[in-house]
Recover the amino acids of this structure.
């Protein structure tokens, strides 16, 4: 498991932004690569960036899950296991989906019909993966902003849920 602290800040909130950004960029770059290939660009060169982004996305999502698991016990004391479980399940599903999409994206480097089909499936799948990423991010945001998970790292002066009781 990866450590909790990076310069006094929990590592998980720092790491989770990488898969969020990459899940937004992947469908955009996959679409651009498809258009470039259709206009005659050499397939492996045009498709190398979406494959690289898919690889970085899978690795960063895995690291995000690992850092989340290493901080889970501390946050459970504030939030409770039930609330965390949904976020954890969505994150693990996201890692599996991103890994599967990486394999399909890599097949997009192959020539002819196999590569062409894999590139199309990857592009469509990248939009689906973005939706799965939104689900993970939303549940993580609820942990912090609705259920007060950040209080696990404060000095104890703020109470969980205080921010949401004012906004209702």
């Amino acid at each position: 498991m990866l450590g909790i602290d990076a310069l006094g800040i929990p590592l998980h909130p720092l790491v989770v932004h990488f898969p969020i950004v990459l899940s937004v960029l992947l469908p955009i770059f996959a679409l651009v690569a498809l258009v470039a290939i259709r206009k005659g660009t050499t397939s492996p060169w045009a498709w190398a960036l979406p494959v690289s982004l898919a690889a970085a996305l899978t690795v960063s999502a895995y690291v995000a899950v690992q850092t989340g698991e290493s901080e889970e016990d501390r946050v459970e004391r504030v939030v409770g296991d039930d609330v965390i479980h949904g976020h954890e399940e969505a994150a693990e599903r996201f890692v599996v989906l991103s890994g599967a999409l990486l394999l399909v994206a890599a097949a997009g480097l192959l020539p002819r019909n196999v590569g062409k089909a894999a590139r199309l499936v990857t592009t469509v799948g990248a939009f689906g993966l973005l939706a799965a990423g939104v689900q993970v991010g939303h549940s993580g945001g609820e942990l912090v902003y609705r259920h007060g998970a950040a209080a696990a790292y404060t000095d104890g002066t703020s109470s969980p849920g205080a921010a949401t009781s004012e906004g209702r």
User: Anything to note?
Assistant: The two ends are 37 Å apart (CA to CA). The chain has one domain: 11-155.
